[in-house]
Amino acid sequence: MLFFSLSTWVLALILFAITLLATGLGLVAGRKVQHRSDDLREPFGVMQATLLGFMGLILAFGLSLAVGRYEDRRAAIVAESNAIGTTYLRAQTLAEPVRTQSLTLLKSFTDTSIRLTQTVPSSPEANRVLADSTQIEAQLWRLAGQALDAAPIDTAPRLYVDSLNQTFDAQSTRAYGLGNRVPDEVLLLEVVGAALALGLLALHLATIGQGVFTVVLAAVLVTLILLVTFDLDRPTRGFIQVPADPLINLRISMDAPPAASAPSGG
Questions:
Q1: Contacts from 67-71 at CB under 8 Å and sequence distance 24+?
Q2: Any stretches that span the bilayer, and where are they (predicted)?
Q3: How confident is the model over 117-145, as pLDDT tens digits?
């Protein structure tokens, strides 16, 4: 939560400030010892190469973690949309009055899923959305039990109950995935490692009297990599968000008349 609680713009400013400060300190220190460049060139070069390699490894590791979680969240929202869509279709085969009541509740359930994509994980608003979803789940499950009691040997209620359970599981999986972020320790290690590596790179280049523009450019590029890594791990509030299009399109399709009519015996 150390970095996640910050707004995206504040986070970007902090990252730029840290990397540029480390680069600036390295340049200042390098110019102060520039008269000893012949003695310091080799040890500084070794340390610079070592830290740059370490920084590259850490940045790649953190970025891979963030990308993996982002892709998991995209897959989870598609899986939930498919599960709700299947449940909605199967609900149309139930007998009245359970059929109409269930279809209405499934629309409300989809609305809560869309609202969940627009809230910050673990925030009071997100907790309210999950509480509303839990209430709808209880009503849907009660209606499913009524459908089974009314027709215990029919196939339609059993299939509906199975898909309804999968729908509940799909939303729980997605809600958990929204809060499954890259550990703060990994992100902090990335920031500290990048700052040290850039500072030492600036120190080495300033010692030999060249490369000021190069190290500043490197600082900007590293900061952008850090920002992308952090942003991928902020699914509902950053520049790179998980699209809710599958759920939104599903909800729009629910406004059309049901494809199947109620069973004649209902």
A1: 67/232, 69/177, 69/180, 69/181, 69/182, 69/232, 69/233, 70/232, 70/233, 70/235, 70/240, 70/242
A2: 46-67, 186-206, 212-230
A3: 888 888 889 899 999 999 999 999 999 99
- Residue 122 region, left (φ>0) first, then alpha (ψ -120 to 50), else beta? left
Length of the chain: 266
How far, in Å, CA of 258 to CA of 151, rounded? Answer: 22
Cα dihedral angle (181, 4, 242, 116), rounded to 10 degrees? 90
Q: Output the average pLDDT for the chain.
A: 85
CB neighbours of residue 235 within 10 Å: 23
| All structural domains of the chain with their residue ranges | 8-254
